[in-house]
Amino acid sequence: MKQWISLQAEVGNFQQKRAIYIFALKMSFAAVIMSLAIMIVMLPVLQWLDLLPLPIMEVMRFGVLLAWIIGGTVSGVLAILAGFSIHKLAVSRAEFERLSRTDGLSGLLNRRAFTEALKEAGHGASLVIFDVDRFKTINDRFGHASGDAVIVAVSQILGRVFTGEDMIARLGGEEFGAIIHGGDIDERIARIEAVKEQVANHSIAIDGGSVKITVSAGIADMGKDRKTEGVYAAADKALYLAKTLGRNRVVHERERLSQVWRRYTTEQEEEALPALMELQRYVYRM
């Protein structure tokens, strides 16, 4: 019985008030059934001892009535009171769990929750790491409140672009992460480029004026037998290359540096490509 009651009172089931009344109803029925079971067992014994003041059928009718009126009502009221206490506990626990998985400034998932989501993402998803370019300069020049405004603005843009199954998080400081589902790699890069463009075109109100920022991004794909640590490291290296190429870039782990370079540069800058190819070989040896 104790185990049955504990199952009915599972804290997670009490986040909705409707569950309280269902719990109270179950407890009332349980109390009535227990009362009737005890009465059925005890009445023949009391009759055999000649301790019943009335015929056994009369006593049974009174017993059933009292079981419903007293046992059912009292247990129902007590169950409602207990249910509301459990409801408060359930709501508090749910809020604590939410806060423990949420970044306070951006409202996105935090690093711990994102890491858990990445482990469950499985084959067919892509990891993107975004980094706000020259964020330290903004913090040093305009103050931490301005830096916070930048974080909030980038978070809002990420939330508009990545929806549905996609997961987004603030990984710490000026770094953000996204787990993208659906589409082929070109479609995913297009969505990431959309984030980059929206950020670059967005003016952020700072200290009576406004400032524009850019972001760089590195992409790596989840594989069937690929560990999450390896995926994260690959995305981080792609981000490093995006930064090295001049920031405001999106780099996929499998793209040749020449492809990225020609996507963002003019013919006059082609002469720098050999040196950057050597840089790519160095980065992927790290």
What does this 3D model show about the protein?
This protein has 286 residues and is an alpha+beta fold. It has two domains: 2-100, no CATH class; 111-283, Reverse transcriptase/Diguanylate cyclase domain (Alpha-Beta Plaits, 2-Layer Sandwich), CATH 3.30.70.270. The protein is 60% helix and 13% strand. It has ten helices and seven strands. It has helices at residues 2-8, 18-48, 56-100, 111-121, 135-142, 144-161, 185-201, 228-244, 257-264, 273-283, and strands at residues 126-132, 167-172, 175-180, 203-206, 209-212, 215-221, 250-252. The strands form two sheets. The chain has a five-stranded mixed β-sheet, with helices on both faces. A two-stranded antiparallel sheet has the order 4-5. A hairpin with a 2-residue loop joins strand 4 (203-206) and strand 5 (209-212). The longest helix has 45 residues, at 56-100. It is elongated. Residues 1-9 have low confidence and may be disordered.
